[in-house]
UniProtKB/TrEMBL annotation, chains A, B:
Subunit relationships: Homodimer. Probably interacts with PlsY.
Keywords, sorted A to Z: Acyltransferase, Cytoplasm, Lipid biosynthesis, Lipid metabolism, Phospholipid biosynthesis, Phospholipid metabolism, Transferase
Provenance organism: Methylophaga nitratireducenticrescens
PANTHER family: FATTY ACID/PHOSPHOLIPID SYNTHESIS PROTEIN PLSX, PHOSPHATE ACYLTRANSFERASE
Documented EC number(s): 2.3.1.274
Name of the protein described by the UniProt record: Phosphate acyltransferase
HAMAP family assigned to the protein according to its UniProt record, in alphabetical order: PlsX
Length: 330, 330
């Protein structure tokens, strides 16, 4: 029910997912009447692979997390997360209110043993492929210990999803030199060198997009600002490019000729292809889709959920954490 | 002597500045032999308007600030700042080591009364013009009080330089809602509403490039990461654009046709036109040029120094601060 478009986007994304994966079933959680009506609009032979789980409430996109948590016990979000808790679903995907989703998921599923704070992680495009970045906004005052836990979770995710052994882990900082940074980052660096993680060192803001590391760790305040500033710059560049090509008939012709290149270029940086952030560190898989996602983007978020469920990311985080604790590296 | 190019860039920038401003004299600080040799390469009738002040040492671009401060008492940087201190120069412009420049300027000039920490401020391009952002990296653990001082300094600068009365001031945050953010930001917001500054509220990372406010305030860690991440994204987009147009002969022809538009577009976002950051909050004007600046960019940094000297930014900050203190708004 969540996001800017609700079932209009979720149902077509669900159908394309089922067409791609023959061994998957999906449970659609929300208002049964609305969901059924939306399903009826589509031609699809395998409709029995979509079950509907009714939920009588929805969480507003601007609703405070506390209100959702206390007052919306039958919201689509809550019911979906309950299904994960009860083992009826392997993962939950939502385009709803991020704060409410995180609060509800944390309350219902609880964090993994040894993980104090869940974090938001997603892959961002770089000049060499992609880099997993966390935390992107779940925690605004992370301690050095939290940053180390983020590093471990990011490393496990990158290794499992990309099949890359020993992914490099960097700490986002204001300079690459050892003396730079605030106390939290310096202490996190000290702690990370003691673990078995492939710690790379400090990475500056531009190093993220150079693809210096596989996993980049930061406090949620910093990560959120960096992510949104990046989106802002990309948006501004598109704005000025469009303006430039619309100036007069000559530039418009140039724009028409350049269009296929500009289009294929923006495909490589298409944020829809990167849709789907993981609320990592919970005893269950919860994927957050962008609220404005279209069906293509939402299907990508579902795909991430499938991948993570198959690889059992939460169990592997716990396993790696236990190893570190046993060998007294943490 | 500083930056990637030293006098090769500074001398032509100095000459073009003198050609533009007939009422200005410049003092070139550094190795006299090197500077004279560089000046000799240029045809310019008004060479007497450039004086050379010899300095026997230079600060390395990667040298720790403490080493520059203690061991380089005759560095070009130190001598130039001394000239400001002694009133022989109205402002200092350097493309050298940022940390060393800040430490030296702070040590020699001291902060303004009522200002605890100097900050780095610069104008960044937005979809509506430009926004002054501070702090960009001088302070990695700013308190709420520091953020309020930054807001005041930014507001004075924007008003004086752009002639815009009562510029809007925003706080960079992870969400626009009141409940969002860390404690420092929330406390700074509370304090700012009590001042006579035109406080706008919270601004998210993308809001910076939408030009939501005239002045955007943040901790130096956050500001530095946001700035560098922005540069990284812009660089990545240029990289993929170039790659797209270089794919084959068809795309190359499209690139040739689109070139004038792409070029004029990048002119609008040319970082060289925005070169020159102010080390604000000191008893004197110190402008930091990007280390990689060319002569055009360095001349822009000199131009900022001229503007700020003419408007006497430090004195006006003190005046505004006194008003706030007298009226018990701080």
């Amino acid at each position: 029910m969540g996001g800017d478009h609700g079932p209009q986007v979720v149902i077509p994304a669900a159908i394309s997912t089922l067409q791609r994966h023959s061994d998957i079933e999906l449970i659609l959680v929300g208002d049964e009447a609305i969901i059924s009506a939306e399903i009826a609009k589509h031609q699809f032979n395998d409709k029995h692979r979509m079950k509907i789980q009714h939920a009588s409430q929805t969480v507003g996109m601007d609703e405070p997390p506390s209100s959702a948590l206390r007052g919306k016990k039958d919201s689509s979000m809550r019911v979906a997360i309950n299904l994960v808790k009860e083992g009826q679903a392997a993962a939950c995907v939502s385009a709803g209110n991020t704060g409410a989703l995180m609060a509800t998921a944390r309350f219902v599923l609880k964090t993994l043993p040894g993980i104090e704070r869940p974090a938001i992680i997603t892959a961002l495009p770089t000049m060499r492929g992609h880099t997993y970045v966390l935390d992107l906004g779940a925690n605004v005052d992370s301690t050095a210990e939290h940053l180390v836990q983020f590093a471990l979770m990011g490393s496990v995710l990158a290794e499992l999803i990309d099949g890359k052994p020993n992914p490099t882990v960097g700490l986002l900082n204001v300079g690459a030199e050892e003396i730079k940074g605030n106390e939290r980052v310096k202490e996190a660096a000290r702690l990370l060198t003691k673990t078995d993680l492939n710690y790379y060192g400090y990475v500056e803001g531009d190093g993220l997009y150079h693809g210096e590391v596989d996993v980049l760790v930061c406090d949620g305040f910093v990560g959120n600002v960096a992510l949104k500033a990046s989106e802002g710059v990309a948006h501004m560049i598109r704005h000025y490019l469009r303006q430039g090509f619309n100036r007069n008939w000559l530039t418009k012709i140039a724009g028409l000729i350049a269009y296929p290149v500009l289009k294929s270029f923006s495909k490589e940086l298409d944020p829809r292809a990167f849709n789907g952030a993981n609320l990592i560190g919970l005893q269950g898989i919860v994927i957050k889709s962008h609220g404005g996602a279209d069906a293509f983007a939402f299907a990508n978020a579902i795909n991430i959920a499938i991948l993570e469920a198959r690889k059992d990311v939460p169990k592997n985080i716990t396993k790696h954490l236990e190893t570190l604790l046993e060998e007294q590296m943490l």
